[in-house]
Design a protein that fits this description.
The longest helix is centred in the C-terminal third of the chain and has 25 residues. With 191 residues, the protein is mostly helical. It is built from eleven helices and no strands. The protein folds into two domains: 53 residues, Arc Repressor Mutant, subunit A (Orthogonal Bundle), CATH 1.10.10.60; 127 residues, Orthogonal Bundle (Tetracycline Repressor, domain 2). Helix 1 crosses helix 4, helix 1 packs across helix 7 and helix 9 crosses helix 10.
Length: 191
């Protein structure tokens, strides 16, 4: 039988509560209660709520799988972008609780935002490097940073739209939509 260690219990409880109420509205006392531990135990493991959020974010969002993806390219624009897009969508769906938490967070907190934007910023750097290499190979002509931002914005928009539309009936198969969008995007940026 597998048991969850104390730190994981606290991390899991924090993600559930943060996504339900937003970061600011959740107390460490509530998290400890949800995890079935004392508040002192929570502080022994994480010191404060912000450290807890950072650890939860690192555990649940920026996985080594995403980094590994950027080391396995075929240098075929459509195929690579399909893999990147599918992986990005999977990561967003796996972490929709954290994203929903951000939507519920009403106050601006620079520390909180820095942690939350870690994933898209790292993803953007990886995309920029990819597009820079594709430009040096003569495959694309546009500015790599602009392409990375456009690609991220389009994909995040797809994620948010599918979250909303799923509740209203989203009848297009996601993979069909991804393939179609990538074909259009790749066609528009190739030399």
């Amino acid at each position: 039988m597998c048991t969850i260690n104390t730190e994981d219990k606290i991390l899991n409880a924090s993600i559930i509560l943060f996504s339900q109420k937003g970061y600011s509205a959740v107390t460490t006392k509530e998290i400890a209660k949800e995890a079935g531990v004392s508040e002192m135990t929570l502080f022994r493991h994480f010191e404060n709520k912000h450290n807890l959020f950072e650890k939860a974010f690192d555990k649940f969002v920026f996985s080594p799988k995403v980094i590994a993806l950027f080391e396995e390219f075929e240098w075929d624009l459509e195929r690579d972008l399909n893999k990147i897009c599918s992986s990005y969508q999977d990561t967003l769906y796996q972490n929709q609780k954290i994203i929903l938490m951000h939507f519920k967070n009403e106050e601006l907190n620079p520390d909180f935002d820095a942690t939350l934007f870690k994933f898209p910023n790292e993803f953007k750097k990886l995309l920029c490097n990819y597009f820079e290499e594709m430009k040096s190979r003569g495959t694309i002509r546009e500015n790599p940073e602009t392409l990375a931002m456009s690609f991220l914005a389009t994909n995040f928009g797809l994620f948010v739209t599918s979250l909303i539309m799923k509740k209203l009936t989203f009848e297009t198969d996601m993979q069909v939509y991804i393939t179609s969008c990538i074909k259009i995007f790749a066609k528009g940026i190739t030399c």
